[in-house]
Every structure is written in C-alpha cells, then in structure tokens.
Design goal:
Elements (H helix, E strand, L loop, with lengths): L8 H25 L2 H57 L3 H39 L10 H34 L2 H14 L3 E5 L2 E2 L8 H9 L6 E2 L6 E3 L5
Keywords: Coiled coil
Pfam families: CT398_CC, Zn_ribbon_9
Length: 245
C-alpha cells in the first residue's frame, strides 16, 4: 500500500497561500476582461463613430450644396445675359412681331431670374447655417471629451489591475518553487482539469467540484493526521482543511 503524502505545517501554509494567490489572480483577471470602464469606452466609441459618420455625411452634403449654389449662380448669370440681350433687341428692333417675341422671352427670363435669386438665397442661408454648426475653420471632427475621460479612467484601472496581477503571478511562482515536487504536480493537475490547484473542504463538500462527500470519506478525513495530504475522491483536487485542533 502506498504511503500517503504528507506536508508539514510550513508546507501547508505555502499551499494555502498559493491557492489564495492564484484565486485572487483568477478573480482579477476575470475583472480585467469584463471591466465596466471598458464597456463604457466601447459605448462612447460607438456613439462617437456614429457622430463622425453623420459629420462626414454632412460634409458631403455641404459639397453638394456648394455645387448646387455654383450651378444656380451660373444659371442666374446666363438669365441676366439673356435679359440684357432681350432689352437690347427691343431697343434696336422696330419689327412688331419680333418685338412681341422679345417681350415674351424677356418676361420668361425675368421670371426665371427671380426664381434663381430665391433659390440662391436659400442655398446661401443653408450653407451659412451648416458652417455655424460645424464650427470655425472646418477643422474636422473633435473627439468627444467624455470618451477621452473614459479612456483615461479605463487605462488607469487596467494599469492598476495589471500591476496587481503581475505581483500575484510573481508570488505564485515563488510559492510553487517552495512546494515539494509531488505536491506541485498534484496542484498543476487540478489546475489543468478543474481550473484550481487546491480548494478548501467546505463542511462535507469539496470547494472545487462542490460535490457532497460520503460519510465514510468524511470520517476518514476527520481521522487523518494533520500532515496528511488529502485529495477530493471525486475530482482529485488537493483539499485544504482547518487543522487548528
């Protein structure tokens, strides 16, 4: 029969500290991966991207309005030239029928010029309003101050958590080196198979798999010497027990 593994008080303290350090590392790592600060940054980034998309579309609309204004201005210049030719023709041409045609064409030119003048004024007002809302100089989109602040807060939290995790990982390596090789091998097996290397015995259940242990096993555990290394019969994880008795 194989003799049970044993661990003295100092070794049990190292194992308990290691389990606590690694559990703290897992908790901080899980928090780092699901930071509310990160979720807030992502929300604000999405809102900022939508705002910039709308601004890009507005700038495209502005270019379209500028082209429209140029076209209207050109058409108005053509109508003024047409009106001027009609007036000159009326002054120079005594033919009654020709004068009637010129007066008709002049009326059409005058009406169209009035319409173009109104359209030009509307386009100019729209462009002025757009320029006022877009800010002086049209310098392009400015990042949302709330997003800048949220990113700074996220980075501060990430730095803090990363620093804590780095320190804990360093301490974990130190503690692992202090454990006997057989105990460390069992600890690593538990990490590989169940995510934890050692877990407390919680009354009648294992703190790793949370299965209630049978009465025979519990009596054996109760009678085991303080230095005997116990493992869960269900999952094989090292069990930490309160041996202060």
């Amino acid at each position: 029969m194989t003799a049970p593994l044993t661990l003295d008080a100092a070794g049990r303290g190292i194992l308990a500290e290691l389990a606590g350090v690694d559990e703290r590392t897992r908790l901080l790592t899980a928090r780092l991966q699901a930071l509310p600060e990160t979720a807030e940054v992502e929300r604000l980034e999405a809102a900022d991207e939508e705002r910039q998309r709308l601004a890009r579309r507005a700038r495209g609309d502005e270019r379209g309005r500028s082209a429209t204004l140029w076209r209207l201005t050109r058409d108005a210049a053509n109508m003024r030239a047409r009106r001027r030719r009609d007036i000159e023709g009326l002054r120079a041409n005594p033919d009654t029928e020709r004068r009637r045609d010129l007066r008709h064409d002049l009326a059409v030119a005058e009406r169209r010029l009035a319409e173009l003048t109104d359209e030009i004024a509307r386009e100019q007002r729209t462009l002025e309003a757009f320029g006022a809302s877009d800010g002086p100089g049209h310098e392009g989109p400015v990042e949302d101050p709330a997003l800048v602040q949220a990113r700074a807060e996220q980075q501060a939290v990430v730095r803090d958590l990363t620093g804590q995790i780095t320190d804990l990982e360093h301490r974990s390596r130190e503690l692992r080196e202090a454990l006997p090789p057989q105990i460390l091998a069992l600890y690593r097996d538990g990490e590989r198979d169940h995510g934890v290397g050692a877990a407390p015995l919680l009354g009648s259940s294992c703190g790793a798999c949370f299965i209630d242990l049978d009465a025979v096993t519990l009596r054996r555990f109760a009678a085991a010497p303080a230095d005997e290394v116990l493992t869960c019969p269900e999952c094989g994880v090292l069990l930490l027990r309160d041996t202060a008795r």
